[in-house]
Sequence to fold (424 residues):
Amino acid sequence: MKLDDLQIGIIGLGYVGLPLAVEFGKKYSTVGFDINEPRVQELKSGTDSTLECSSEELGSAPLLTYTSNLESIESCNFYIVTVPTPITDENIPDLTPLKKASEALSQVISKGDIVVFESTVYPGATEEVCIPIIEKNSGFIFNKDFFAGYSPERINPGDKVNRLTTIMKITSGSTPEIANFVDSVYSSVIDAGTHKASSIKVAEAAKVIENTQRDLNIAIINEFAKIFNRLDIDTEEVLKAAGTKWNFLPFKPGLVGGHCISVDPYYLTHKAQEVGYRPEVILAGRRINDGMGEYVATQLVKKLAKEKIHIDEAKVLIMGFTFKGDCPDVRNTKIIDIIKELQDFNMKVDVYDSWASKDEVKNEYNIELIDELKHEEYDAIVLAVDHSETKNMGINRLRSLGKKQHIIYDVKHVLSIGEADIRL
Fold:
């Protein structure tokens, strides 16, 4: 296969798949496939509800078409799978979307085709889970009739600086020749360049440790914050002081949600335990970060009690619900942990977030987002997400939302030091 012969099929048009489809659609015949028909229709109309691609960017890919019809990608010869890889409530990898994508591909794949997976998995998943499904259902033989690659996604939702083309891409292939070709395909659209891994397993492992390392770095900062809170020391002031050393890493405390950092470590620990190794540091970090929502709620309750504000039926405003600032993504948001814990104390909780989809939040979390902020209404205000909108409100505007006696808890260090009543 040559680059001139490429006909690319992107499986999944979410935060990862759409930017890929747009970039490839500028140079190659590209079909974006998604089983979500409303999603396909919105993209056809030139709108992206994830806000990863502007209308102008969608219009810059003349060779890109969208479909929810599987037969429409039969003519493709280079497939890229970008479906989600979540975890179950028991923190076990859920490969269902990946398995279904593999089954779908087995119905359209032809001899000589290449399938590249981008979904985050544990080392070995591509060749142990996905490839056997394609082989079984298509009747084709791996590395004879069809080939595979793995190129982990590095999309950072909401980031308008570090984009697909400006982030170096890891590539790999199931044979040395396929590895070279996969690398050349990505190199043709990635300005930052590529790094060709020695095997698919190496590429899978590289991806899963990237976010695991970040998760652990945040976990230690969260533990620092818990210690400093007991010592009545402001965590941000400590981090600023320590940050004057050249090799101190600039992480901040907070809730670790989203589709990557809070999920990927469980893929690695699952595989580690499968081969007889019990990870200790990784799981300890996960326990700390998974417990931060409950910790924030408990700290707020203690502060209310200390200020002699009646806890039963207290009214609390949560500012922000998405998993990160200036981003509409509510997947695996840890704000829900704060809300549930406060409701367990019989508090009335209002949630405001102009970035989040009201319908999605209602469907996924059974939370009704409020439309307007009310003055002098709340016993406590929790700045849970650092949206620019919240930052721009300023302390006086935020204070106006509270009753005469109220508490402001600045979880994300939105305000200047000393302005909030309690900070993480």
Q: What stands out?
A: The mean pLDDT is 95. Residues 316 and 368 are 14 Å apart (CA to CA).
